[in-house]
Amino acid sequence: MSPAVTPSTTAGFDRQGERTDDDRVDAAMRSFVREFGVTAALHMESCVHCGMCAEACHFHVATGQAKYTPAYKLEPFRRAYLREVGPFAPLVRAFGLVKKLRVDELQQWQELIYDSCTMCGRCTMVCPMGIDIAELVKEARHGMFKAGLIPERLALMDRAAQEWGSPATPAEDLPDILAEVSEEHGVPIPCDLPQADILVTAAPAELGDHTKALADAAKILNRIGVKWTMHQGGFDASNIGFNNGDLQLQERLTRAIIDTAVKIGAKTILLPECGHAYGAARWEAAKWYGQALPVRIIHMTEFLDELIAEQRIRVKPIADTATFHDPCQIVRRGGLEAAARRVLAALGFELIELQDHGLTGYCCGGGGGVVSNQRATPLRHKVFEMKKAQVEATGAQRFVTSCGQCRITLEMGAKHAHWDKKTESLLELVADNLAD
Amino acid sequence: MELLDFARGPALDFAMLVFVLGVTWRLVGVLLLPRLRDRSAPREGAPPRLVGALRAIVRRMWPRKEFIQVTLFSTINSYVFHLGLAIVVFGLAAHIVFIHDLFGLSWPSLPSDLVFGVGVITLAALVAALVRRLTHPVLRLLSGPSDYLSWLLTTLPVLTGLLATAQIGARYETLLAAHILSIAAFLIWFPFGKLMHAFLFAFSRGATGMRFSHRGVKV
Amino acid sequence: MTDSQPLGEMLRERGVSRRAFLKYASYMASLMALPPAAAATMAQSLAQARRQSVIWLSFQECTGCTESLARSFSPSLEEMIFDLISLDYHHTLQAVSGEAAEQARRQAMRDHKGKYIVIVDGSVPTAGGGVYSAIAGQSNVAMLAETVEHAAAVIAVGTCAAFGGLPEADPNPTGAVPVSKLVMGKPLINIPGCPPMPQAMAGTLVHLLSFGKPPELDALLRPLAFFGETIHDRCYRRQFYKRGLFAKSFDDAGARKGWCLYELGCKGPVTYNACASLKWNGGVSFPIQSGHGCIGCSEPRFWDRGGLYKALPTGTGERRRVVPIAAAGGAALGVAAAALARGRLAAAASKEAK
Fold first, then answer.
1. What pLDDT digit, counting tens, does each position of C237-290 carry?
2. DSSP string, B66-127
3. Which residues from chain C sit within 8 angstroms of residue B92, using beta carbons?
4. CATH top-level class for A8-150?
5. Fold identical between A165-307 and A314-432?
């Protein structure tokens, strides 16, 4: 899904629905309060205002604007905590030590936590107090959603996903899409099988711009001879609810893929090359299913790593130099740094790391809904300059990543910057270079 | 002498009361909140949660290699005044006497002149921190009265301690009283501002350590 | 004793040579850090002065002040003071007793009205109408009031008279007060110490006699010449303090090496007196030199400072009791706060569910 690129330079705010200001504030506060378990509370208590997080955040580094300091992005959330749930909350309220949140403050805040935060977690890596700022931004978004104060583009996608099961395409269109792709690339893609061992899912990138990825996955799955299918019941794992802060939608979309897997007897859900899909399914599905998820969640990158390690597939080595963009949600926040590199090694690449790579790699600038948030485009372009510079500095021939949204963000950035470097996908490289 | 008697007596008593009461209140009040924990299955080979927590506590003592350059001033200057404070507080004979009176623990002291020198360096680092906070755009945006008060109440004991040792500005008993009163003020404020990070850092880092070691990420 | 004879003459008659007299004057002048020329002035004025009438009132005291002044090391220059003054009333040193003594006091008050000096040692009890100390049926309070009414100056000698001393220490059952609380509108000098240094008492008196006015005093009315510096300022063990070498217990290795006694409760840094420079018993020694920390005896309320062996950096209060109570209280408040917070979380959850 690629929104039309009409850069907007004014940071305003969007609203959903016709509601009173008080109603919005109350809704936000109720949601905020529910987030403050012991971990969030500890983090709210611990910030010492050292400002190091600013030095890690690509939005701050690219623009030099102090307002993009990650800790600053949490101010209203922190105020809610101190007033409502903190150990001194009754005193804080009684003496007015922290002001009540106002609707205009929430409105102004929208830009900070939606336009200028990708929840990439680089700030979390630098904070000397170990505060997981990215996670807290995600939690704060729950309240903003409840207040009807999210960017309209994201709200649009939210509504679409509620309707269709995906912001990209209606569920009922899936069989047609898969049939088309199957024919175009000459590869069978099962859809809606009543029984299978692996439920394969996709994300908007695969369902829109890069449908070849569906064929690539199919090629590999067919090669290893497993019983697999895609299914209308649960086909988009990207989980826009996770991005937007819409917990109800997040739950619905999570259940859609897991319940569908259970229904068809699948023991494994294969996630596409997508970052937020991993966060939503691998780590947060347990919110609704408890520790023992009825299925195993595996990311495409992990899957490729396992298949290669178990020698169920082999790849022909490519004697090129390559550099890799680490998708934030699967590497820094997901734990797949090593897996991705093993796959790259198997592909025979001579890996030249970006100056900032692995756990401290810079975000593509489009995560967390930012690439869909058309209002944030100018900001995103500034951030892209940093990535471009780092890639060029390696002098590597190939530029690879393993997240569809990252890929789209980087491609859009390249187009805007008139950069001719192609962004490639790990999955595509493996599929195109399978050895017989 | 009345000021010194007040400082050593009721002032310190009150300060200790507020300090212990406040710190306990704040810690217990936070740690008893619900555990909305990540119940997902850990990554294979993930260490036990406590190990993950401890690793983060230790590793966050120093920034990651990639961040050292951009956080150089903060990192170095903060260590200078933290270590300086530790050396002064735990190395000066008079302070060890104070601690011994409270806890029954004591250890050999450092030469007083050395501690004085460290105290001067500590004061310089604290002043540098303030200048930075007042001039750096990010820090100006983040900082409020609470931050400046924390700075003031941390710096006053160092300053008054140096003045008392060098006997500058007033009679010794006045300077000593001022020093003890500044400690009392520090203790009274401690539980309510960011000075609490002295206790919180372990829990905050530990929580993130647990979350990420669970996912197979070394924070 | 006639007071019409100039002192110079009288002393010569008693066999005190002019040389000894000049030596005494210059010794006193240098003791009080007066300029060299003052010695000559002092000698001259003293020679022409008349013998000063002094009435010494002893109230709630231990007589240590008198003992200190009367210590004699043959020959003691301090002793000379008794040749320069006419001690018209002093319980310990006077020959007469009983009603005759009181008459001598009243006679001196009449004869030298407006010119006599009153020296007081001991605190003055005020509880129960002053019944806790009475002389010849008269309470100390009354005797003090009566005696100072026409005095030229009042000198409160010893910490008891200057600041209340031991009787004033907690719980102060006799309602003891210092002289300064009861004497208004008269020049008052405090010479504290338990006991005070003999040089301080003698030197102050000589200054008064020579120059007709008190020496320079500090805020507590103590002569700066003797109370201007702390023991710490002049302590010979200062270098050990600086180097952080402290005795940890009496007679330990450090103590035997003469290390600083700060950790054993020495109040030297906050005690103003001349012990460390002039020393006691004719310059032989002083408490620190003998291995015991200064107890701060020339400072107000030194008995109620938390204990003679409680080092200065330690608190004097009830911290050990306070801390567990505070911890329990804090924990309770924390539990309550967490309960309230959980309540708000639950309320928010149920509101959202609707």
1. 999 988 889 999 998 999 999 999 999 999 999 999 999 999 998 889 999 999
2. HHHGGGHHHHHHHHHHHHHHHHHHHHSHHHHHHHHHHHS---PPPPHHHHHHHHHHHHHHHH
3. 244
4. mainly alpha
5. yes
* Domain ranges, ordered by start, for chain C: 7-223, 231-334
B49 assigned to some structural domain: no
Residues in CB range of B60: below 8 A, 6 or more apart: A127, A128, A129, A130, B201, B205, B219
What integer is the mean pLDDT of B163-171? Answer: 91
pLDDT tens digits, residue range C252-263? 999 999 999 999
Q: Is the pLDDT of residue A10 over 50?
A: no
- Residue B40 in any domain: the answer is no
Average pLDDT over residues A192-196: 96
Residues of C in Cβ contact (< 8 Å) with B30: 334, 338
- Is C335's CB within 8 Å of B28's CB? yes
Residues C300, C296: Cα–Cα separation, whole Å: 9
For the entire predicted model, the pTM comes to: 0.89
Contacts of A34 in chain C (CB under 8 A): 345, 348-349, 352
Give CA separation, B156 vs A48, A72, C297, in Å: 19, 28, 31
**Partners of chain B (3+ Cβ pairs below 8 A):** A, C
Give the N- to C-terminal CA distance of chain C in Å, as an integer.
Answer: 108
Residue C244 is predicted with a pLDDT of: 85
Q: How many Cβ contacts (< 8 angstroms) between chains A and C? A: 34
Residues in chain C where the model's pLDDT stays below 70: 1-4, 72-81
Residues of A with CB under 8 A from a CB of C: 29-31, 33-34, 36, 84-90, 146
Quick check: B63 and A52 CB within 8 A?
yes
The CA distance from C180 to C154, in Å, is 9
**Residue range C231-334, CATH number:** 4.10.480.10
Contacts A39 to B, Cβ<8 Å: 35-37, 207, 211
Q: What is the token pair recorded at C72?
A: 């004699």
Q: Cβ contact (<8 Å) for C352 and A30? A: yes
Minimal CA separation from A233 to chain C, in Å: 26
> Which chain A residues are Cβ-neighbours of B78 within 8 angstroms?
50
The CATH class of A314-432 is alpha beta
Residue ranges of chain C whose CB lies within 8 Å of a chain B CB: 230, 232, 241-244, 246, 262-263, 269-270, 299-301, 304-306, 310-320, 322-323, 325-327, 329-331, 333-335, 337-339, 341-342, 345
Return the CATH class of domain A165-307: alpha beta
For residue C86, give every residue at least 6 positions away whose Cβ sits within 8 Å of its Cβ, in sequence order, or none: C1, C3, C51, C52, C53, C54, C108
Find chain B residues with C-beta within 8 A of A336's C-beta: 216
Q: Which chains touch C (3 or more CB pairs under 8 A)?
A: A, B
Q: Report yes or no: B135 at the A interface, CB cutoff 8 Å.
A: no
| Two tokens, residue A291 | 């520790």
Question: Any CB–CB contact under 8 A between A38 and chain B?
Answer: yes
Q: How far is CA C86 from CA C105, C107, C158, in A?
A: 12, 13, 21
B214 domain residue, yes or no: no
Query: How large is the ipTM?
Result: 0.95
Touching A (3+ Cβ pairs <8 A), the chains are B, C
Residues B64, B50: Cα–Cα separation, whole Å: 21
Q: How far apart are CA B12 and CA B6, in angstroms?
A: 8
Handedness of CA A212, A213, A218, A220 (dihedral sign): positive
When the pLDDT of each residue in chain A is averaged and rounded to a whole number, the result is 94
Whether B126 is covered by a domain: the verdict is yes
Q: Which of B81, B165, B185, B179 is nearest to B131 (CA)?
A: B81
The candidate with the shortest Cα–Cα distance to A87, out of A35, A30, A122, A42, is A42
d(CA A378, CA A375): 8
Q: Which numeric CATH code is attached to C7-223?
A: 3.40.50.700
Nearest CB to A87 within list C337, C349, C351: C337
